[in-house]
Request: fold
Amino acid sequence: MTTPYLVLTVTLIFIFLFIYMVSTVVWGKVVSANDKKAELNKEETRRDFLHVSTITIGAIGSATFMWPFIKSMNPAEDTLALGTTEVDISNIDEGQSITVTWRGKPVFIRKRSKEDIAEAKNAKLSNLPDPEKDSDRVKKEDWLILVGVCTHLGCVPSGQKVSDKKGDFNGWYCPCHGSHYDTSGRIRKGPAPDNMEVPPYKFLNDNTVLIG
Reply:
């Protein structure tokens, strides 16, 4: 259940609980005073009934009025579909990288070599501008998935092709202002303030990853 639907459900529950409590109190008063003021109570009962009915109708009317607006807050199905990208990684060889698109951004997927993994693991956190363990950035150590955007001014770093310049740390190099990233996508040198972003993703199986 999405957040807007949950909010509406909770709101409706509180409204009807309130109506129930009001109705119970009113009915109790009517019964207790019935013997003393029968005629008067008939008028009060009618008045209380009208009062409760008005509240009920108002609550239902408000919910009906609010529903289209709350529903419009939920993303459409086609929008949700665009929010994820399913990628077949079965044909990516060790040391190879591919680029896919997710929400209009390039996403780098690299099958890291043993050397890549070792370099990422052996980096001293104290030497990193944005300290982060390699194990916190991957779900399977041989697969690295990053949003391929430099965190300085949004350029796309090179390093995806074998012939690309990969910088001083064998990862990626941003040609715009000279930021160097390592084999974990962490900033090591240059003006970029942060590591490259790791998008939300999960492995559906050994050959497929879902980004988003």
User: Anything to note?
Assistant: The radius of gyration is 30 Å.
